[in-house]
Amino acid sequence: MKAFNEYTNIIKAFKASCRKPFSNIYYMSSDIKGYIESGRLFYEKEEAGIIFFLDEGAYYRAWLFVNENGEFTISPQNKKILIRNIYKSGEKEKGLQFVERRLEESGFRKAGTTIGIQGEPVKLFQRCEKIKKYTEAMEKKGFRCVEADFSMFGEIEKIILDSGIIKDHQLDYRTDEEKKRLEKGSYLYMVDGDGQICAASICVVEDGIAKGAALAVKEEYKRQGIAPCLTYHRFKWMRDKEVRFVQGWILTSNIPSLKYHQSLGYEFMDKYTDEWILDLAESSLDKTGDGL
User: Fold this and answer.
1) How many CB atoms lie within 10 A of CB 167?
2) The pLDDT of residue 153
3) Of the candidates 213, 112, 223, which has an alpha carbon nearest to the alpha carbon of residue 156?
4) Which of 42, 81, 137, 228 has the most neighbouring CB atoms within 10 Å?
5) Rounded CA gap, 60 and 108, in Å?
6) How many other β-carbons are positioned within 10 Å of the β-carbon of residue 165?
7) Are 99 and 85 in contact (CB under 8 A)?
8) Calpha distance 251→191 (Å, rounded)
9) Tens digits of per-residue pLDDT, 177-210?
10) Percent of the chain topping pLDDT 90
11) Which residue in 87, 70, 62 sits closest to 21, CA to CA?
12) How far is CA 153 from CA 74, 156, 226, 234, 287, in A?
């Protein structure tokens, strides 16, 4: 795809031929323009609709614009494919139910369900003020928080992914140049008295909203009070940056994380996302294609 008007034209054309299309496109026009300009957006067009593929480095994120009763197909690519469907609690709409059945028939597996959370950093930090003295005491023991430079980003991401709190397809993709332009402190980590990294945190601010927040403690440092210290520093950083809201997603199967965020004062929204994955080895479709 070369230009944004190409994207809008194929959407308009399909709308003219389909009375009731199903769509799980959750992006702003400005985001889509950026994906096109960076050469990361591709699509496949068929009678039943259009499948868009966004290159996210380790995988493709796909979104649909299809006839909700049409037998659309999604071709396997040279990377796994992720599809996210957002809905409110209660019964899913008929179109979404059909799409999910079609995904299963195409070889997709449901990888998990996440729930949306949000909070106001000022209020969240106020709740953490009570651990300020505790954080100061930990600092006297040698534990301190460090604002990472770009050379540490890869290690921080590995700590978070190895912890299992999020999957690789839940870590927002950014190019190296985009990461270098992030605000200082977007990547934080804690070290002990010997200078060894024991915990890490990522939080990126866009238009006054912090997104993609994640915090993990290395297994050998758990139950030592590291997480509250890093949480305190993260909320302080958000407050100092005058962040208006922090938003994120938590796996509904991660009960400890749900309880932890509830204790911090996060609001749980009536917004859920089912994540569907197509791995090459699991596809029931033809695997002879070269991919994108």
Assistant:
1) 15
2) 97
3) 213
4) 81
5) 13
6) 17
7) yes
8) 28
9) 999 999 999 999 999 999 999 999 999 998 899 9
10) 75
11) 70
12) 34, 5, 20, 16, 35
Residue with tokens 């179109």: 95
Question: What's 74's DSSP letter?
Answer: -
For the chain, the maximum distance between any two Cα atoms, rounded to a whole number of angstroms, is 68
Q: Kindly report the backbone phi and psi dihedral angles of residue 3, in degrees, each rounded to the nearest multiple of 5, phi listed first.
A: -150, 160
- CA nearest neighbour of 263 among 240, 241, 231: 231
| Distance separating alpha carbons of residues 142 and 196, to the nearest angstrom | 10
Q: Which amino acid is at 187?
A: Y
Q: Which two tokens stand for residue 219?
A: 């297994």
How would you class 261 by CB atoms within 10 Å of its CB: exposed for 0-12, middle for 13-18, buried for 19 or more? buried
User: Could you give the CA distance from residue 257 to residue 10 in angstroms, rounded to a whole number?
Assistant: 41
What is the Cα–Cα distance from 247 to 260, expressed in whole angstroms? 15
Stretch (H or E) spanning 275: strand 267-278
Handedness of CA 212, 218, 223, 227 (dihedral sign): negative
Pick from 272, 230, 235, 265: nearest CA to 250:
272
Q: Average of pLDDT values for 171-181? A: 92
Q: How many helices (H) and strands (E) does the chain have?
A: 9, 12
- In our burial notation (b when 16+ CB lie closer than 10 A, e otherwise), range 68-98 reads bebebbbbbbebbbbbbbebeeeebeebbeb
- The strand pairing partners of 216, in sequence order, are 200
Q: Which two tokens stand for residue 259?
A: 């309880």
Residue 289 has pLDDT above 60, yes or no: no
Q: Name the residue type at position 125.
A: F
